[in-house]
Amino acid sequence: MFEVFKTIFLAIPKGLSVTFKYLFTKAITVRYPEQKLTLSPRYRGLHYLKRNEDGSEKCVCCGLCAAACPSGCIYMEPAEDEFGQRYAKVYEINELRCIFCGYCQEACPKEAIFLGKEYEFSNDQREKMIYKKEDLLVSIFGQRMKRPDARTGPSGGVRPDEHSG
Amino acid sequence: MVTLTIDGKQIIVEEGTTILKAAEKLGIEIPTFCYHDQLETVGACRMCLVEVEKIPKLQVACATVVSEGMVVRTDSPQVVNARKGVLEFLLINHPLDCPVCDKGGECELQNLVFKYGSDKSRFVEGKRRYIVDPKSKYDDLAIGPHIIRNMNRCIQCRKCVRFINEIAGEDDLGTFKRGSKTEINILPDIPIDNPYSGNVTEICPVGALTSKSFRYKIRVWQTEAIPTVCPQCADGCNIRIWKKDERIYRITSRRNDEVDEGFLCDKGRFGFDFVNHPDRLKNPLIKKNGKLSEAPWDETIKFVTSSFMKIKGETGSDSLAGVGSGKVTNEDNYLFQKFFRSVIGTNNIDHRVDSKNLLPSPDTQIRNKYFGMKNTINQIANSKLILVLGCDLEKEHPIINLRVIKARRKGSSILVANPVSTRLNRFAQNGLLYKQRTETDFLNGVLREIIETKQYDNAKSGFSSSEIEDLRRKVSSSDSLKALQTTGIGAENIKSFVNALVKAESIIILCGAEIISNPKNVEIINSLYDLIRLTGHQDKDNSGVNLLWKHSNSQGTLDCGILPDRLPGYVRISGKPGLNFNLMLEAVNQGKIKAMYIMGSDPLSEYPDREYVKSTLGKLEILLVQDILITETAKIANVILPGASFAEKEGTFTNVEGRVQKLNKAFDPLADSKADGQIICLLAQAMGHEFEYRTPKDIFKELTGVSPIYSGMDWETLGLSKKQGKVK
Amino acid sequence: MLSEIAKKKISELKTKFPERKSAILPAMHMVLEEVGFYNKDILKQVAGLLGLSEMEVAETVSFYTYFPKEGVGKYHIQVCTNLSCMLLGAEGLVSYLEEKLKIKVGETTPDGIFTLSAVECLGSCGTAPMMQVNQIYYENLNRAKIDQIIDDLKMKK
Fold first, then answer.
1. Within a domain: residue C96?
2. Using DSSP, how many helices (H) and how many strands (E) does chain B show?
3. What is the pLDDT of residue C68?
């Protein structure tokens, strides 16, 4: 009996006091999507593949990112172009499986793959979450060629490394 | 014997052993680049430096011979520093392009730098470049149909050049210039194109020589290596299939000193296209209204079995015939003959579709004249004289050819007698060209010369004087003297040929397809045995007559009883023997055989008389062909069953010297195709027989029980190098 | 290319050495005397005469910078860039020569007079830096000296 009394008259007010205290402090949440938080400089979002200054792809398809990837979400097929250079004929990242650990970026010997700051790329179709090489490559100026996600549709010009929501 | 201490461990080795070999015995690793135990030691890379007490400077372990009481250290600070130094020197000019290099992941330089090297370089100057095309950033150059060279990566160990010179006996790769400008190259406009060129890509410790077919296909660590056996020729080289998913990316050697010594021919190394071929058969096909159309398995099996039953019921089981193949495994062949003998009830089985002239079947237990190889492949290199007769060894048996070259290097004499000149002739002490089909006359001339000049070994030969007299009469008749002139070989040549033969301490005779399918094959082989006896070599280890079969499992097919007159293990058939392939064709023409089941063979392209086979096989009511590709024969078949390639099934191959080796399955059979053994089981089960084998292991177990020559072999230990079963 | 006398002399060399390969160098000296350079056909001929493979001859000849290839200029300038000469500024002299002749190392001037190459030690370290033009040594070099030598050679033509 005493236990029940203790719960009702002592514990509940004690708990609620914490709740009420926060009623009068500044809100921690923001009004997403109108308002957005500033990301940490080390934030790891959607991948992007860089280009050389002459416009060629930096990636030589060495396979180290795929070897380093703990979730096995990177698939690639190398090939030889007309200059005898090795390049990635197929380069796919399954963003559903990716855990955004950033090991691929760390493993890359050519500084080709980076994790950007985009996090708004949800989709209603699973296939569309497998990002092809064309989706991942940015222009020489570091801008996305297109953004294949459901919300915005294809749109270019976004810098994945500066994106803050 | 010499006692020495390496890293505090004592070991007793033979005199003349190098420190490297002694350390290997103790299990102490000494890193090397330029050392290869099949090649002559040059001590060029300085990677194997070790410290020897009382010698002020470090010594190269690969070339320093042990001496009594030597104390060697392989882990002292001085040695560790020396290794670091050597690697730093190598990396001065070695480009750091591992991400694009095909060797990345299995590169010896990469591995050793990771293990022993330093993580920084003090070298700031630019790296050396061998510019191939001034307009290009890349210095790759195709120096042959299979090889791509990138000199920037070369560490000048010269293993490739030494392999080409010493092992393959060629000279199409060389070292040019000197010092830091040293360059491995071909002569201008003469690409490296010998049948062993692919080995340099495997022997190269770095990515300087890489293979064209594997170029930029996949990283090595993404593939899986499956140990298996090469299906190309009867030598039975051990290989590794490097596969991912259901695709073969490359084939490399799996060293087995009894068979291949770690080298492969280019056919074995690069000839795996047929496995990934887009034209592979994927479904069973039945001919309806003159057109082959796809059909489900159950329908096809039902169709085949009901037709077989119908023919069997109408005209008896002897109106069916089976043709096996030297290209499928022992297990498949064993099931095939079991299917025909127990389910159908006929002995009409054969596999020798490539010749009209068949050798008599061998007998149980005794390895008689028609068995195959009397010697082992290894013994070839130890023989003092090798006679290659009627065989283009380089094309037919490239790995046995390497042993002949090895024997030549050791100082043995090579005699070659062929209707046409072969590439082996360049090593031959005596290369004779006889006119085709005059082998017997030529051999009679040789025997006559030996007898007439009394150069034979009377005591050792075991010939009685009357036997010699008979032989003399046979070879000295006026007919044979006249015939000798038709061979196109002069008496002088025969004399020098005989001189070489009688002087030799041991003689190995290698006969190729030309002899096996010769109209006078039996006579030739008898003459060769007479020759061996006359020279007194019949009981010696490194002497004998060897018949070299054509296909990867020709020997096993014989062993498994794909013969009309022998059961597995050459057990004589008690009743009337069945028909061989030639008689089968006759019987088809006479209307006696109505259905034929051909597994793995392609008589249309293999039989000497193509039109005859084509018209004959066209008369059959049912022609069932089981293969992996649409062969010429399959094109005229009524039913085609899709089999599995060597990479897609388990089983055993018996190579030309009688060594039973295991094939491992790399991946599942393509699409709807099935392993050959499984298809035979399905057919037998549909005909109401119990063919309950879960795996090829069960079949092999049964085979070891049935066949006396395979008894005692254990499936589990087959395929492990050196423990492979060897037919006694 | 080779005269009959030279051919005979070269094939006689075969018997003079226990190892046949040893005959390559004297044979090439004969070629140099007679033709002045070597090319693919000459190498093939020499190999045939000595009973060696073409590869063996080509390998050996490429080892020595002394044997000029076909297309070499009238004056073959060989600057030593080995240790002693390099320490005393041979590399600077090479680039000076490159500038002066307007060609790179290993190239020949368009008029076919000068060929420039950088070679290993010529055994004259005491008088480094040095160079060899055809058979003649020029020692204790500096820029002024090179200017003079080149001018002299140009005059001679």
1. yes
2. 25, 30
3. 85
Q: Name the closest residue on chain A to residue B217, using Cα atoms.
A: A78
pLDDT, one tens digit per residue, over C4-38 is 888 898 988 888 999 889 999 999 999 988 888 88
Whether C69 is covered by a domain: the verdict is no
Please tell me if residue B611 touches chain A, with a CB cutoff of 8 Å. no
Instruction: Specify the DSSP element, H or E, that contains B499.
Output: helix B491-503
How many angstroms separate the CA atoms of B94 and B103, rounded?
13
Nearest to B242 by CA among B225, B254, B229: B225
pTM (two decimals): 0.90
Residue of A67, A78, A109 lying closest to B221 (CB–CB): A67
Looking at the structure, tell me whether residues C8 and C42 fall in a common domain: yes
DSSP assignment of B197-237 equals TTHHHHH-SSSSEEESTTTTT--GGGSEEEEEE--SSTT--
Q: Are C44 and C95 within one domain?
A: no
Question: From the CB of residue B624, how many other CB atoms can be counted at a distance below 10 Å?
Answer: 24
| pLDDT tens-place string over residues B108-139 | 999 999 999 988 888 888 888 998 888 888 88
Neighbours of C, requiring at least 3 CB pairs below 8 Å, are: B
| 8 A C-beta contact, residue B4 and residue B26 | no
Name the residue range of residue C79's domain.
Answer: 75-156
ipTM of the complex: 0.87
Residue C15, both tokens: 């018997």
Residue ranges and CATH numbers for the domains of chain A are 37-136 (3.30.70.3270)
Q: What is the pLDDT of residues B178-199, one digit of tens each?
A: 888 899 999 988 999 899 999 9
Q: Which of A64, A67, A86 sits opposite B216 (nearest CB)?
A: A86
| Residue B134 touches partner A, C-beta closer than 8 Å | no
Residue B462, sorted as left (phi over 0), alpha (psi -120 to 50) or beta, turns out to be left
Chain C residues lying within 8 Å of B192, measured CB to CB = none
Residue range B666-689, pLDDT digits in tens: 999 988 899 999 999 999 999 988
- pLDDT value at position A155? 53
Domain of C46: which CATH number?
1.10.10
- The CA-atom distances, in angstroms, between B710 and each of A162, B556, B574, B727 are 72, 10, 21, 7
* A78/B216 CB distance under 8 A: yes
Q: What is the mean pLDDT of residues A63-81?
A: 94
C56/C113 same-domain check: no
pLDDT of residue B79: 95
C68 occurs within a structural domain: no
Q: What's the total number of domains in chain C?
A: 2
User: Which alpha helices (H) appear in B41-185, and where do they start and end?
Assistant: 77-93, 108-116, 159-162
**Are the C-beta atoms of residues B150 and B102 closer than 8 Å to each other?**
no
Residue B444: what residue type?
A: N
The DSSP annotation for B159-204 comes to: HHHHIIIIIS---S-EEES-GGG-EEEPPTT-----TTTTHHHHH-
Q: What residues of C are in the B interface, CB distance below 8 Å?
A: 40, 53-56, 58-59, 62-63, 120
H or E segment at B450?
helix B439-452
Whole-number Å distance between alpha carbons of B69 and B13: 12
pLDDT of B397 reads 93
Would you give the DSSP letter of residue A51? B
**C134 inside domain:** yes
User: Do the beta carbons of residue B198 and residue B264 sit within 8 Å?
Assistant: yes
Domains and CATH numbers, chain B: 2-75 (3.10.20.740), 117-270 (3.30.70.20), 285-357+560-726 (3.40.50.740), 377-547 (3.40.228.10)
Query: Does residue C87 share a domain with residue C148?
Result: yes
What are the pLDDT digits (tens) for B53-92?
A: 999 999 999 999 999 999 999 999 999 999 999 999 999 9
Yes or no, beta carbons of B178 and C59 under 8 Å apart:
no
CA-nearest residue to B186 within chain C is: C55
